[in-house]
Amino acid sequence: MGDTCAESVKECREMVRDFARAEIAPHVREWDDKAYFPVEVFRKLGELGLMGILIPEEFGGTGLTYRHYVAILEELGAVEGGIGLSVAAHNSLGTNHAYMFGSDEIRKEWVPRLARGEVLGAWGLTEPEAGSDSGATKTTAVRQGKEWILNGTKNFITHAGTGGAAVIMARTTPGKDHHGISAFFLPLNSPGVTVGKHEDKVGMRVSDTASLILEDCRVGEGALLGREGDGFVQAMQVLDGGRISIAALSVGIARGAMDAAVSYAKERCQFGRPIAAFQGIRFKLADMATEVQAARLLTERAAEEKDGGRKTTLISSQAKLYASEVAVRAGENAVQIMGGYGYCKDYPAEKFWRDAKLCTIGEGTSEIQRLVIARELIGE
Ligand SMILES: Cc1cc2nc3c(=O)[nH]c(=O)nc-3n(C[C@H](O)[C@H](O)[C@H](O)COP(=O)(O)OP(=O)(O)OC[C@H]3O[C@@H](n4cnc5c(N)ncnc54)[C@H](O)[C@@H]3O)c2cc1C
What we know:
- It is a single chain.
- By secondary structure, the chain is α+β, with helices and mostly antiparallel strands.
- It is built from 13 helices and 10 strands.
- The strands form 3 sheets. The chain has a 4-stranded mixed β-sheet with strand order 1-4-5-8. It has a 4-stranded antiparallel β-sheet with strand order 2-3-7-6, covered by helices on one side. A two-stranded antiparallel sheet has the order 9-10.
- A hairpin with a 2-residue loop joins strand 2 and strand 3.
- Helix 4 packs across helix 8 and helix 5 packs antiparallel against helix 8.
- The protein is globular.
- It starts with a helix and ends with a helix.
- The site of flavin-adenine dinucleotide (FAD) has 22 residues, from strand 1, strand 3 and helix 13.
């Protein structure tokens, strides 16, 4: 990447940092307490071009690089992880899947609306009995004349309740492992779509997570994304990009936790000195800073690989695994550094800790990332 890109990434990062400080930071506590989904923030993010980050301008997006994308998510994560999670799910999953594999009609009719943030995108892979084992998808899509009829339940879907459209992975051939799964584009106001249970989550509380129930839900032939039977492979390709975004979000959360811990350690006095004077605290801060930097470099490297058009399965999983675990450690250490205050909601540390934990679960748990990394390593 040349200097022009580096300069543009820097400007973009500063713009998002200013926006997050002005429009999000003052409300973090209240929105988290109420698990409030701030739809107005997403409209504004749309106006800033942050809801179609990876989508070319001709389809209503901003056509930025993954290097921009990771900087944007780091800045959002450092202030409000849940907003970062929603931005990541909308951009990399729902919108990107529709753009990458959608027909000309979907690209013309829906992608620009998604990319401008007029409609929020959802992505439905997970099911009650198909979590890590997503190849065990039970939702079915049966062809009837010129339509497909979808039936099933999707669990833990970001924007199930607030989204306007979703990409749904459904089984089109019974019993044919993951090659029997196809992807469909589904407007969420279609007859037969019901929003199920809204999850009352430990962290990422501002992000909307609910189940989607599909009962005899009819979509036209054009709703099939790419070829029949390719849905699972498409989903894995989409996750290669998505995991980079979760890594970036994790870096942001870890940095937010570290910054809060540093400020507190400089202010809080015990034994007649700021606790930042104690070596035990300094070692924790030093480890946090080193891990945050390592996670950022790994994530930026994954972004560069993606921008270069290379396959990123290995490095996406490595970045996601490492950065998410760094974020959890940073959150926990920030709580520890703040002592009893860290354990209370008046201070930001406990929220970083709660938000960080999701990053080790969503878009594939840490265990699944290790399986992917080992598979790539062994060459299976
Ligand atoms: C806030 C939130 C948002 C989400 N958003 C979306 C979304 O928008 N779309 C979507 O499709 N999904 C979404 N998910 C679902 C998420 O991707 C799944 O929760 C995740 O993949 C894990 O699946 P599971 O919860 O069923 O856990 P399980 O698969 O039941 O796993 C339970 C435990 O077993 C471990 N495990 C499972 N298999 C193995 C194995 N082979 N080896 C070792 N350990 C194993 C797991 O690592 C985990 O520790 C979201 C989840 C949350 C919490």
